[in-house]
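Shape matters. Shown next:

___
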Amino acid sequence: MKRITTCLLPILFLGSVLCSGSYAAESMAEVKELVASVKLSNAKKYLEEHPGAPDALLAVNMVLESLQELRIYDDMLPFLQQRYEIYKGTPDVKAASLVNATASPIYSLLRRARKGDEAEAFKKQALIDFAQFGPQLNAAFAQVEKAYAMPKVGAIMPNVAFSDLLTGQKQSLAAMKGHVVLLEFWVSNCDICTAQRLFVKESLEAFRPKGFQVFGFSQDEKPDVLLAYIQKEEIDWPQAWDIQPEHKWAQKLNLVGVPTNFLIDHTGKIAAVNLRDDALVKKIEELIAAAPSAKPVTGTPLAIGKPE
């Protein structure tokens, strides 16, 4: 405990500064944020300078508490993993500490970061490392999986709205009620996406007059590269640059990777997920035939010229 106490001397000094009035805080919320920031900085420094210290768990807990106070959740993962490793060497670790406060948040953050393989590897290892908590771990992991599950066939797809990268026009799934819509999540350097695009174009040519539309959601990092690619490939259906904060539909729908697609029927229900090639074209034809009436998509295909 002596080391932690020494580590926290700057916090005591900060308290004296605040009480003396030399720091003009606007509110107690600002004071709490400043104290949490100093605690975070000092506890992280202590862990860096004293790896393997017997009181490292106290410092890790202080880091995590400070990050939570500051609402910096994405930075918590490495410290949760460090606490997990400490608990592996703690014979009397409590189920609540390991399951609810450590393993479940780790699994959740990995799923949130769309690191599906890493999340599943952690889940498998946790059930080995802490077999005594197997039922509790399985229940906690199941809750996380439910929260981060992709929409399933038969469910109503949440409304997906975005500004079309090509025209700036607002697009939304809700506005396409009565039509059959394909939501296609892709990235330009994906070979499967490129092959799939041939069938998407074929479907649009055949079924756009009968009420079929495609929304693309590109995961490309650079918009200039993306636009050049769209021009080169003559992609003429609405596109969201999906990494923009106001979009991020791949993340909101809990996708674990691309390519992923959702085929939505005229009622707004998900009719199929990840259909490819001729199976996709056949399913679109079935859904168009099952719609009560043909409703052509308004407007005409965009004129996408070749890049100069």
